[in-house]
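Attaching the record inline, Q. Sequence:
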Amino acid sequence: MSKHRSRTLGERTLAPETLMMGFGYDPTLSEGSIKAPIFQTSTFVFKSAEDGKRFFEVAYGLRQKEPEEALGLIYSRINNPNLEILEDRLAVWDAADKALVFSSGMAAISTTMMALSRPGDVIVYTAPAYGGTEYLFDRILPRMGVRTVSVADCDGGEALAAAIRSASAEAAANGGRLAAVYVETPANPTNQLIDLQAAAACIRDLGLAEPPLLVVDNTFLGPLWQKPLQHGADLVLYSLTKYVGGHSDLIAGACLGRADLMARVGEMRTICGTITDPHTAWLLMRSLETLHIRMERSQANARTLVSRLRGHPKIEAVLDAGGAEASASQQALFARQCSGAGSTFSLRLKGGEAEAFRMLNALQLFKLAVSLGGTESLVSHPSSTTHSDYSPEAKARCGIGDNLVRLSVGIENADDLYADLERALAAV
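Structure, as predicted:
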C-alpha cells in the first residue's frame, strides 16, 4: 500500500499533531475517503504467487527486507492497513524507527520481555510498578527460568545502579546475562521519577558486548511530556488504553524503538498473536488526532487541583511528578527529563483505609474506577485494587499505603472537580 509519509512542508518540519491528520494514509487508495476505512478482514489476496513468496520471506525472517521494500499484506495476525497507519503515526511522537501495537498494555509488556529474555537471564526492574507488571516479573517470568530483581528506592539512582552492576556480575558468574533493565517512570501510583540518562550510562559502563536493554514504560506521561528514547532508552512501552486512547472505550498497548530490536519484538508478536484488531486501531487513529488537546487540558486541570489541594488539612501529601513536595533531586530530574507533569497524581490522606474509603464513596464527579488518562476524571485506591497483589512488605517498601488515593484528572471544568473533592474531603 502506497502511503503519504512526508514530514515536511517545503523547508518546514511538521509537528506531530499536524501529521496525525494524514500521515501514512493515501485517500486515493480508499475511494477518496478522508479517513481510513476499517479493514475488517482476516486475509489479503496476493497479486501473484511470487508476491506471496516474497511477503512470507520477509514476514518470517527468511531474508532481509530491501531498503525501500514494504512488508506486503498477508494476514491480520501479522499486519493490517489500519495497524500499519496507526503504527506509522505512533512512531512520529517518539521519533522511533518503528512502532508495534498490541491487544493490551500487558500484551505489549509481556510479549516484549519474552522477546528479549531466555532461561538463565536476569531482569532488573524498578518498583513500584503497575500491578500487572509486578505480577509478570514476580510470578510469571521466574517460572520460565528468568530471575528478576526489584529495586524500590531509586531516588538519586544509586540503588538502581548498584542493582544493575550486581545483577550483571551474578548473571555472568552463572553463565547467563542481564537481559534488560525495566523502568516505569513516573511510577504508578507514587509518581517517583527514574533518571533514564543515569541508567543508560550505568549500562554502558558495564562494557558488555551484549549490553542489557533499557526498556521504559512511559504510560503515565505519554509521548507529550516525556521522550524516553531521547534519554537513552532502547524501547518504550505504552498502555494505549490510557492517554493515547483517551476515551475509556478500548484496550491496547504499544512498543516503540530501533528497527532491529522491533524486529525481535515483532517476531514474538506474530507467533504469540498479541496484535490488536482493526477496529481498535481505527479508534486509536481517531484518538491521536486530539491527543495533544486532551492531554494539555487535563494537565492544566490537574495543575489547578494540585495547587488547591496542597496543604489541605485532611491531606498528608500530594504526590505529583517533580512537584513541590518531591525531593530536590526529583525536582532537578523532572526539569531535565520531562516537559510536563501530566494529569495523574496521588494523595496521602491523614488516616488509613477507612478515611480513604469515606472520601472515595463521597465523590460524585470523579468516577470510582481503575485506569487513567480518559476524558473523564477517575479515582482509585491502589492498595486494594491495582496493587492488591503486592505483599504488605512490598507496599510499605514502595510507599503504597492504605491512605493513598490516586486521581486521574479529565477535561471537565476544574472548579467543578475541585468542588467535588472539597465535599468528599469534608466527609473524611
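Residues 291-309 form the longest helix (19 residues). The CA atoms of residues 352 and 403 lie 4 Å apart.

More tomorrow.
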